[in-house]
Amino acid sequence: MGSSGLIEAFERRFLAARPLPSFPWRTVLHPLCVKHPPSVKYTRCFLSELIKKHEATHTEPLDELYEALAEILSAEESTQGHRSYLLPSGNSISLCESTAIISQGTTGLVTWDAALYLAEWAIENPEAFTNRRVLELGSGAGFTGLAICKMCSPTAYIFSDCHSQVLQQLKGNILLNGFLLNPDSTAPLQPSVSALVSPKPIVMAVQLDWEQVTTKQLSVFQPDVIIAADVLYDPEIILSLIGVLQKLSACQADQKPPEIYIAFTVRNPDTYQMFKMELSKVGIGWQKLPSHNQKMFPYEKHSEMVILRLLV
């Protein structure tokens, strides 16, 4: 890997607040970082380690490093921080996320690896989303949907989650990335005059409880494509997920079933097998998509990641 590639790989990992193997300089003063700073804890640990590495070289001290560390040491700890991701287009996505994996009784306030994996597949296969209406189940922090909105040109994108705190953060992240929210989640989605002129899709963020939602309520959305990432972390959720997918398929006005893509990390093979077994019980087929070619975003692939296309 050349020096420019090394710096780019490092830059991507730093902006996404991921562990760093080495320490080039374009970090805390990166324009994205200045505008949307990572958590105080991450920045403090990074600068402390960077100074330690620099001091080990026995070269001239860099005042900028010590000034940056002094500034961050005096900053107040927060329960939130930003992660930023560079897109192949040169654009970027910045997300405000919780600094804890589990916060306020939910795991939906952080970005999980399968969301990054599904976004990579979407960017490599934009035709699956171009000029189509997309519904995402369990959107969490919103990364996958924002990547699709910025890179794949859907006509409409409906983010959804059941947890009110997740939904509040999700709406903030949508606005942070330059999209306007359609305020009416009960009206059928129709392209406005501005939507026909602008490349940006119609965007909604709705509260969706898979157990409580009715077919009538779901009939408003009429998605061409349904996606979800990392929603199979608990076996108890499987039946609820399958149930809402059946309702969505049943209420399509044109009787054409939507395309469905579910991405997840196989943390527990038994849960994966249970999901496939329950799909078979209700007559839903599935096809495992081949691994895609390019890794665009920083994540640790310790376990297998899978994208299933469901055949309803």
TrEMBL record:
Domain FAM86 N-terminal as annotated: residue spans: 26-72
Molecular functions (GO terms): methyltransferase activity
GO biological process: methylation
Keywords: Methyltransferase, S-adenosyl-L-methionine, Transferase
GO cellular component labels: protein-containing complex
Stored InterPro entries: FAM86_N (IPR029426), Methyltransf_16 (IPR019410), SAM-dependent_MTases_sf (IPR029063)
Pfam family, one: FAM86
Family statement drawn from the similarity comment of this UniProt entry: Belongs to the class I-like SAM-binding methyltransferase superfamily. EEF2KMT family.
PANTHER family for this protein: HEPATOCELLULAR CARCINOMA-ASSOCIATED ANTIGEN, PROTEIN-LYSINE N-METHYLTRANSFERASE EEF2KMT
Protein name, per record: Eukaryotic elongation factor 2 lysine methyltransferase
Record organism: Sarcophilus harrisii
